[in-house]
Specification:
The protein is an alpha/beta fold. It has 2 domains: about 180 residues, D-Maltodextrin-Binding Protein, domain 2; about 140 residues, 3-Layer(aba) Sandwich (D-Maltodextrin-Binding Protein, domain 2), CATH 3.40.190.170. A 6-stranded mixed sheet has the order 7-6-8-5-9-11, with helices on both faces. The protein has a 5-stranded mixed sheet with strand order 2-1-3-10-4, with helices on both faces. The longest helix has 23 residues. The protein starts with a helix and ends with a helix. Bound molecules: (2S)-2-hydroxy-2-methyl-3-oxobutanoic acid (X2X). The site of (2S)-2-hydroxy-2-methyl-3-oxobutanoic acid has 11 residues, from helix 5.
């Protein structure tokens, strides 16, 4: 300091000292934060992400501007690279499916264990018990250990099966059918065990593959395949709820640390509200045991869904809907037992056990 004063004089030294004191504790905010999602804005997933962005903009009075980039634009379609781009800061925020982060964070395969949740008496209650329970905490830690700041869980939905060939009510019906799956090994294992011919493909290529008949079927939540009009090509849907697909509201840790504590609280609150909206959209008209609670919630926030009776809607657009009886479900479950057994250790025995305990405690 003395040298500095001698060289530049006392006033300059004073000014320099003051600038250190008043330097903002937080880096300047960006003009735009990029948020990554895979499908279009018109899906429940997209609407939830957009709601988050809207709430944040409004409550921060325009200071925090999060732009939703749909259709996997930020990953140039390579959705299973998304976590790496969040970690390195190319992506600031994301509302991502656990499936797309599972190649880097194996714990996330828990949700894609076939019939793990569907085997429970109430699959939604079971899923909530896990995301809000001990297993959920372990998953949040696993994400943070790999370099992503976890905010909360949202929901894409339970994944159902559509195809262009025939009604599917048993694994035999799947025999030889070419089914598009996400680039995640557990999905290949599951469909092979069921006798299908799974093909890995990114979502951005899937609709044209369906149109051209390169694949016969695909699996996604109704809320995600309906907006892209899959019913124009696939006349058959099977409601088998075989895997859960929560979304993760996450942020790059450096970006997170650049926000003031007040803004971090604002972001957390907005993400939780957007997640609640996304979850209600993913469940309305599909949760047989909700007693109207999802519809009431959506009414309460003045976001009435366009469709709240999905079986009726799917039938109206020409789909044949197959709901499986408990006996039919059991055949699928038995066929995939070896997959659940083999994947326990890959996911982490402790985590799978914690999830089983969370589900048992909620029964
Ligand atoms: O690729 C899919 O099937 C999608 C849109 O559901 C995901 O990103 C996991």
């Amino acid at each position: 300091m003395r040298k500095f004063m001698r060289k530049f004089g006392v006033p300059a030294a004073f000014a320099f000292f003051c600038s250190l004191l008043s330097a903002p504790a937080f880096a300047a905010y960006k003009a735009e934060y990029k948020l990554d999602i895979v499908p279009s804005i018109t899906t429940g997933w997209g609407m939830g992400a957009q709601y988050f962005s809207d709430l944040v903009k409004e409550r921060s009075e325009g200071k925090i501007n999060i732009k939703v980039y749909p259709n996997a634009q930020l990953t140039t379609g390579k959705q299973t690279n998304a976590f790496m781009l969040l970690r390195n800061g190319t992506i600031d925020f994301a509302c991502q499916s656990t499936i797309n982060y599972s190649p880097q964070i194996p714990e996330l395969n828990l949700f894609a264990l076939p019939f793990f949740f569907a085997a429970q008496p109430d699959r939604y209650k079971a899923l909530d018990a896990v995301t809000n329970g001990k297993a959920g905490e372990m998953i949040a830690k696993a994400i943070e250990a790999k370099g992503g700041k976890f905010i909360c869980f949202g929901e894409n939905g339970f994944r159902e099966l559509t195809n262009s060939k025939r009604s599917i009510a048993s694994p035999e019906d799947l025999d030889g059918l070419k089914i598009r799956v996400v680039g995640s090994p557990l999905f290949l294992d599951t469909f092979k065990a069921l006798g299908a011919n799974p093909v890995t493909m990114v979502w951005s290529d899937t609709m044209s593959a369906i149109q051209q008949g390169v694949v016969d079927g695909q699996e996604n939540p109704i809320n995600t395949f309906y907006p892209v009009k899959i019913y124009e090509y696939h006349k058959f849907v099977t409601n088998w709820h075989y895997v859960a697909d929560p979304t993760l509201f996450v942020v790059n840790p450096k970006v997170w640390d650049s926000f003031s504590p007040e803004d971090q609280a604002l972001l957390t609150q907005a993400a939780k509200e957007a997640a609640a909206y996304q979850i209600a959209l993913a469940r309305v008209g599909l949760d047989e045991k909700d007693g109207g609670k999802n519809l009431d919630f959506l009414k309460g926030i003045e976001k009435m869904p366009e469709i709240s009776d999905w079986n009726k809607q799917l039938t109206e657009v020409g789909m044949t809907v197959t709901d499986l009886s408990p006996e039919q479900m059991k055949v699928f479950m038995d066929k995939t037992q070896s997959i659940r057994d083999a994947w326990r250790s890959k996911i982490g025995e402790d985590l799978v056990k914690a999830a089983e305990e969370d589900m048992a405690a909620a029964k």
